[in-house]
Amino acid sequence: DGGITQSPKYLFRKEGQNVTLSCEQNLNHDAMYWYRQDPGQGLRLIYYSQIVNDFQKGDIAEGYSVSREKKESFPLTVTSAQKNPTAFYLCASSIGGGGPEAFFGQGTRLTVV
Amino acid sequence: GDSVTQMEGPVTLSEEACLTINCTYTATGYPSLFWYVQYPGEGLQLLLKATKADDKGSNKGFEATYRKETTSFHLEKGSVQVSDSAVYFCALTGTASKLTFGTGTRLQVTL
User: Fold this and answer.
1) Fewer CB under 10 Å: which end of chain A, C or N?
2) Cβ contacts (< 8 Å) between B30 and chain A: which residues?
3) What secondary structure does DSSP assign to A42-105, as a single string?
4) Residue B98 — pLDDT band, cuts 50, 70, 90?
5) Percent of chain B with pLDDT over 90
6) Which residue in chain B has the smallest CA separation from A97?
7) Of B108, B78, B106, nearest to A37 (Cα)?
């Protein structure tokens, strides 16, 4: 089945540690996105990538980093510089080029302990 | 830049009531418009879409019409069910394939 997979579903991190969230898609989509969702809030764009080896900052990129070495993969690293990392993180992909809809993973809930 | 504004929730309705969730947008050019739905603890699923002015998207009894003159894409359903309880997001893709979301509207349907 084609789709977009995020792992893990739940993640706990100690303060001061970096952590990487995985996002893999087998839809052959060019564009991939990372969003952050806080309780009762909408989605805020962290980073997006329209093509392999290229990505752009979204609205809240500070304290996060990404890579896009393969078309299928777009991992997100939450660094220790992110002051309030506890949130629900959603990865999405789309064909790209504007217009078509995005497909979402099931999300990763990150909690800092 | 692009932006989406949707009505704040929560919206609480009795089963079989009519639903309208307002959504307006600001964008350059001709964006595509979407409604997504999110059930508790899950990612977002596409509910419906419209890619040009006057298009009507529809799915599962929900519908929305792309109104360029009023820059709106209101979500409607004639008779809601308890299973429709979820958070609904209005969104658009505009320049640079960037998907922009509204803040979401929580719908609670009671018996």
Assistant:
1) N
2) none
3) -EEEEEEEEETTEEEE-TT-TTEEE--SBTTB--EEE-TT-S---EEEEEEEE--SSSSPPEE-
4) confident
5) 76
6) B97
7) B106
